[in-house]
Amino acid sequence: MTEYRSRTEKRRAAETSSNKNQKPSKKKSKGKRSLFKKLFISFAIVIVVGLLAGVATAAAIISGAPELDPDELMLAEGATVYDVNDNEIGRLHGNEARSYRTIEETPQHVQDAFIAVEDMRFYDHMGVDVRRVGGAVIANITGGFGSEGASTITQQVVRNAFLSADKSMSRKVQEQWLALQLERQFSKDEIMEMYLNIIYFSHEAYGIGEASIRWFDKESLEELTIADAAVLAAVPRRPSYYNPIENPENAENRRNLIISMMEDQELITNEEAEEARNTNIEDQLDYTPADDSIGHTSFINHVMREIEQIDGLEIGDLYAAGFDVYTTIDVEAQRYAEQVIQTNDYISGFPDDPAFQVGFTMLDTNTGGIAAIVGDRGGEEVLRGDSYAMNRVGQPGSTVKPMLDFGPAIDNLGWGTGQTLVDEPHSYSDGTEIRNASGNYSGQVTMREALVRSLNIPALKAHQEVGKEEAHEFANRLGMEFDSVEEGNALGSQYESPETIAGAYAAFGNDGVYNDPYSVRKIVFTDEREMDLTPESTRAMNDYTAYMVTDMLKDVVTDPRGTGTAANIEGLPLAGKTGTSNFGDGERDNVPAGGVPDIWFAGYTPEYTAAVWTGYENRGAGYLLGEEHQLARNIFRTIMTEVHSGMDVSDFQRPDSVCEQGGELYICGGTPDMPDEPEVSEEISDLTAGFDEGNNQIIVSWNFPDEAMDGVSFIVRHGVNGQGMSDVQESSDRQFVLTDPERESTHNFEVVAVRDGEPIDSAQTSVEIAEAIEEEEPEEDEEENEEDEAPEEDQSPPEDADESDEPTPTPPTDEGDNGEGEGGSDGDDSSDDGEDPEEETQSETTNDDDDDNDE
């Protein structure tokens, strides 16, 4: 018991004890702690539940991961390729393209180059780099899942060997799990060896050993320099972009970045880094092409490029994991096309010049699938990284007229094939004059005739009527892309590829439905998952537009005036168009008359579509002259004849939207821009009068359209020496004969066309008759007879008759191309068949389209 020294001390102690036992302030504090405790417990529960759910989900995902089979790590293989009929044609590259190297054969600086750029903490982590994962998580939150990866070298090994190439969360979890397991079973050196042998460098090289041979011609890895190692380490991130053969500048830039990273990580000295950076990449490379186990290099090259553009695929994953690639190739057609283009066994007249090139693409008209493709004359496009079938190689000239001129006019303005345009002096909107190949003008012509004869001026007028923006939009729907919207494109001034032109032409043969040309139908992964790569079809134009253009293009190859008759195949429904470009004024040095840089032919049947370009690897490196103008047409005809052999090909089917009258097509029911029926001329033409001395009679004849003859008769009036005329005949005949005419007189005639008593049109002519011949003076008779016969020359057409309608001894020419306004266009002429040099010069100076296209 406590003792107090006084009562006061005892009272104060009691008051202090009482204050300690008071509760108000404690109640308030306890309330705050209670709320915090509840929040903490709730948050903890959420975390625990989330963790449990995450663990359960991860466990489920991991349980579905494939087994870690060590054999798979060593035997990864290239894709197996199948043709259009699902028949296997070979592997892209298997063991033939892989030269296995052990870790003991691989110098440390080669390993360090990959570690520096791919996984700098490779020797510190256990398969997953937690620090990189954290950075990737932040990037994926801000940029979307898959925006940045955190794969270690170990993860890349298991992904290439066991997993599909998609970027899903499930695959990433499985990848990390398998990476941890791989690190438990194998040493770091073993994993590095796997990585260096499984990695994809290009379609010619898997693994560092094969890449060393292909690019540096170094069988031993010991020969690889630091600069070489940095080039190799640069490629796997983007194999096509950093390929040192195809893109040396890109490869050199990344090589130098990797060298700097090695220097920063103290894997090499400053001196070694400086020496490596100063190495010229061209001096490093010593390219040695691999043997192609499949062949058909042009087609496989297209497959490679197409796959590299697929979102969600990493190119190394695709080529190293044994995928099955189902393509569109028709092997027989591909093989035949290669033989025709890359040998002299089928076509003569190829220039004996290695710079001369050919680009050829053949599609299935209905699907857009590439059946055959030849990228150049020598089959070396892989070596150069070029393909004259896929790249924009030259100005297509008049082959674009269906896409930029007449097709848009039908689709946007409702024109029929009989729509008339005036072929006359004309200019671009900026005042630059253009001309036709012939240098002449034909007056009023139909759209059909303008396309058949390839007249430039009516084509440009159609383009201007539609409007260049609308015309370019029409062409865009057919796969054509333009750097700028220019009027000159109407005559083919832009550069295009045979693949693009073929794709556009196929839409006309496919009822107006466009398919983007493609070579890969689907990919089947090792886990049996399929990726369908067939492009979606789109309607690019009305069905009546496609059919009318097709019907006109059929005349291009069958009409004697057509520019494409050399490409025609008897008995096959075929539509097509030529195209020729010209050198500009500044490019004509040392180019003879008739020399041109590019000649094209594009055409289609209901089954196949093909486009051919012939020219030189660099504009100005050569020119096509004489018989060389026919090469594109001959290539087209030869290959298309073979691929259609034995096929029963039906003609193009006319849709219900198209009607016909007088041989011309129009939209049934008419449009606001076109009458229900084509307009028919009701004019008297070609009125002539000539004296027949032998029968002593004057013969008067004229023309009048048959389709306008309903209810029409002709009144013929006659007068002598300018005196009054009187009616001498009224009938539906288009001829009048006057017997025993008065001599030494001028006989005047007038013909009046009438319907229901009302005049429609009239025309006048006259003929002069000399005095009668005196038979008793035979010598003089002969001279007088010559004088008497002279007036018969007046029976020739009037001076304003269309020169283009007169017969010509030379073959039909690609007349319309080659005006002064635009340089990319057709100009096939008599020189193509070896005709008279004067004719060749006259025609060639106006080859397809206009010279300014070359600007």
Describe this structure in words.
The chain is of the alpha+beta class and 855 residues long. It folds into three domains: 70-284, Orthogonal Bundle (Penicillin binding protein transpeptidase fold), CATH 1.10.3810; 330-654 and 815-855, DD-peptidase/beta-lactamase superfamily (Beta-lactamase, 3-Layer(aba) Sandwich); 685-797, Immunoglobulins (Immunoglobulin-like), CATH 2.60.40. The chain contains 26 helices and 27 strands. It has a five-stranded mixed β-sheet, covered by helices on one side. A five-stranded antiparallel β-sheet has the order 7-6-18-17-16, sandwiched between helices. α4 (108-118) runs parallel beside α10, α11 runs antiparallel to α12 and α16 packs antiparallel against α24 (631-643). The longest helix has 40 residues, at 24-63. The termini are far apart.
Characteristic terms for this protein:
855 residues; alpha+beta; Penicillin binding protein transpeptidase fold; Beta-lactamase; Immunoglobulin-like; 3 domains; five-stranded mixed beta sheet; five-stranded antiparallel beta sheet; 36% helix; elongated; disordered C terminus
